[in-house]
């Protein structure tokens, strides 16, 4: 069921590719990058799981970062390459606030880690 939801979301957001947000759909690589994102459903689920475990939305400027920076944390946690677009998709599916910049494939987000005790428990199990 979750993969069905991802596919539906991707169908409604043609700007998403494996690289993140693509503003130029005339780019010859657009279709290939779009297909690659559809082939990254497991990675999108991993990003969603990671966000649920470790982060919550924030309203504070000090908590601002890019989706690209966060996707590296996901890679370190799962010991697996994660396309930037997989993290962008997972984040957008949560309907958290974010900002975009024209011609930049990343989201700019405000998140903060969950309570330290919860993180310790999750990292040690």
Strand/helix succession: HEEHHEEHHEEH
Give the CA-based shape: globular
Number of helices: 6
* Beta-strand residue fraction: 15-25%
Kindly state the percentage of residues in helix: 40-55%
Instruction: Give start-end ranges of low-pLDDT stretches.
Output: none
Mean pLDDT: 87
What is the rounded distance between the termini? 27 Å
Largest sheet: 4 strands, antiparallel
Say how many strands there are.
6
Walk me through what this model shows:
With 125 residues, this protein is α+β, with helices and mostly antiparallel strands. It has six helices and six strands. The chain has helices at residues 2-12, 30-38, 41-54, 67-78, 84-93, 116-124; strands spanning 16-17, 20-21, 55-57, 64-66, 98-100, 107-113. The strands form two sheets. Strands 3, 4, 5 and 6 form a four-stranded antiparallel β-sheet that branches. It has a two-stranded antiparallel ribbon with strand order 1-2.
